[in-house]
Amino acid sequence: MNAIFDSHAHYDDAAFDEDRDRLLSLMPSLGVGHILNAGASLRSSQTSVELAKRYPFVYAACGIHPEEASGLPSDYLGQIEALCAYPKVRAIGEIGLDYHYEDMAPKTVQQELFANQLALANRLHLPVIVHDREAHGDVMALLRRYRPRGVVHCFSGSVEMMREVVSLGMYIGLGGAVTFKNARVPVEVAGAVPLDRLLLETDAPYMSPAPFRGKRCDSSLIRYTGEVIARIRGISIDELFRITAANAARLFDINLEEPIPL
Ligand code: NI
User: Fold this and answer.
1) What is the DSSP letter of 204?
2) Centroid of ligand 1 to alpha carbon of 51 (angstroms)
3) How far is the centre of ligand 1, averaged over its atoms, from the C-alpha of 36 (Å)?
4) Binned average pLDDT, 10 residues per bin, the chain of 262 residues
5) How many A from CA of 244 to the centre of ligand 1?
6) Which of 15, 20, 157, 208 has its CA 20 to 30 A from that of 216?
7) Residue 207 C-alpha to ligand 1 middle, in angstroms?
8) 77 C-alpha vs ligand 1 centroid, how far in Å?
């Protein structure tokens, strides 16, 4: 059964240059039925679309990550919009704010880029995939203002923040961080998030779950994250995969039985 929906991966990443096609071709046989590949720059958004054109089970998100906020061409929004014309582009992402590194674009630049892409998503009636690293307050302020559909991926906020994200109508993406030895808040969030708002993700090639932490991640490792969350919730892993695939299909408007033609 190809029940698993990996709602966030980066197969455009150079970490897959050696074996991208071999690995992706294997995914259906490993139980991974659907993958949403998230762009992070204009270039990787383009590659994301190319992967979606090549693999029936790959869908794309196009958008510019806060790490890429500097030096954008003036028509970047038009370029993203043009990529979104392809029917297998199901979201704008990943977009957001990242205050972790000192050498990132200034906060005001990141906020303007995020706001512009939130407005574009609303105009195109597409959901967003939100990246929030050490920027909870400013991310929430913009989500309250724009009220997009979407998911806060690799969710790292508190249970209280999770409740507000859910009350805005959005979804919570959880991945490998839930399995880490020191995980406390992600485990609390995994226990409290309404099951109909939870998405599973890998963020491959990053965020490998335990016991593969630090190694290259791929979508098949989502089982390890699923096992931990299913145990926290007291449900079977098959039930968790079924629910989270249905959630992703609802958010990204994908019919799991009838793939969108390439
Ligand atoms: Ni990502």
Assistant:
1) B
2) 16
3) 11
4) 88 97 96 97 98 97 96 97 98 97 93 98 98 97 98 97 98 97 94 98 96 95 97 97 97 90 82
5) 18
6) 157
7) 9
8) 20
CA 148 to chain centre: 15
Beta-carbon contacts of 21 under 8 Å, excluding residues fewer than 6 positions away, are none
How far is ligand 1, taken at its centre, from the CA of residue 9, in Å?
Answer: 6
**How many whole angstroms separate alpha carbon 261 and alpha carbon 53?**
9
Residue 2 is predicted with a pLDDT of 58
User: CA 250 to CA 197: how far, in whole Å?
Assistant: 10
> Tokens 């028509």 — which residue?
75
Report which of 154, 138, 51 is spatially closest to residue 94, judged by C-alpha positions: 154
Task: Report the separation in Å between the CA atom of 18 and the middle of ligand 1, taken as the mean of its atom positions.
Answer: 20
State the distance from the centre of ligand 1 to the C-alpha of 84, rounded, in angstroms. Answer: 18
Q: At what angle do helices 107-124 and 136-146 cross, to 10 degrees?
A: 30
Task: Return the axis-axis angle of helices 185-192 and 159-167, rounded to nearest 10°.
Answer: 40
Distance CA 111, CA 98 (A): 10
C-beta separation of 249 from 5 below 8 A? yes
Amino acid type, 16: F
Which stretches of 90-221 are DSSP H helices? 107-124, 136-146, 159-167, 185-192
